[in-house]
Every structure is written in structure tokens, then in C-alpha cells.
Amino acid sequence: MVSANREMVVFCFDTLVAHYNSEEAPPPAFDGGQHPLFVTWKKALNGSEPRLRGCIGTLEARCLINGFKDYALTSALRDRRFPPIQAKELPYLECTVSILTDYETALHYLDWEVGKHGIIIEFTDPDYNTRRSATYLPEVGQI
């Protein structure tokens, strides 16, 4: 089983820095593979608690190398909840990568543990008759 590691985070930072320098990121120091993944950016200033700055990923299996490259930029620049991350913010950023594995259906709505399990919530919006979903990674809600 593959797990997220430091080299994947370094590659996401390298990808974002390369974007601002209009160059290519150096090749990653990890192997490919196909998995759902997320990239999360947080920003801390003056010793404050890091605050979410962008988090986007995919539930579809993607090649890890291309997936982290794409989602490092997408989560930094195109998360609609936040303005795009600017180059001057780079020194204050933290990055977390998540690789999703071992899906199982919960039998009860409390059948998961914050900090250990992620959760995907799917429902139909009755007002618009459209399907909606939300994904919460294991670290959401941790202190």
C-alpha cells in the first residue's frame, strides 16, 4: 500500500514555486501509481494557527506524479473559496498531501472517527433535484 510522504509534499511545493518562476518543477523523488488524492495548503502568520488556504483533490484514481502536479496548482490557485495564493505567501505556506485508500461503506452516520477516517457524504438536494457531495479528509476537525 502506498502512503503519503515528504517527497510528495516537496514535489507540490516545487510545482508551485516553478509556476511562479515560469519553469518546470524538478522530477519527483517518488514513484507513480494510481490513487485518489488531495493537496491541502495552509498559511500561518506570526506564529498563529495555520489557516486553510486551499484544498482540492479527486476521488478518481490519478497517476500520483501528474495528480500531485495538477492538484498542487489547482488547490493553490483555483479553490473558489479563497483568492489565489500569491508568490509572496510561499514562505508562510504548509502543504499536506492525502492519498485515499481502503474505502468502506459506513453502516451508521457515526460509524467513523475524526482523525482516523475520512468521510464522503453524498445526498440529493431536493430543492434542485441534483446530487451533491462533500469530502472530509481524516485531518479535518483535528486540533
Automatic annotation (TrEMBL):
InterPro entries according to UniProt: AMMECR1, AMMECR1_dom_sf, AMMECR1_domain, AMMECR1_N
Domain AMMECR1: 1-143
Pfam families assigned to the protein according to its UniProt record, in alphabetical order: AMMECR1
Domain of life of the source: Eukaryota
Name of the protein in its database record: AMMECR1 domain-containing protein
The species this protein was found in: Escallonia herrerae
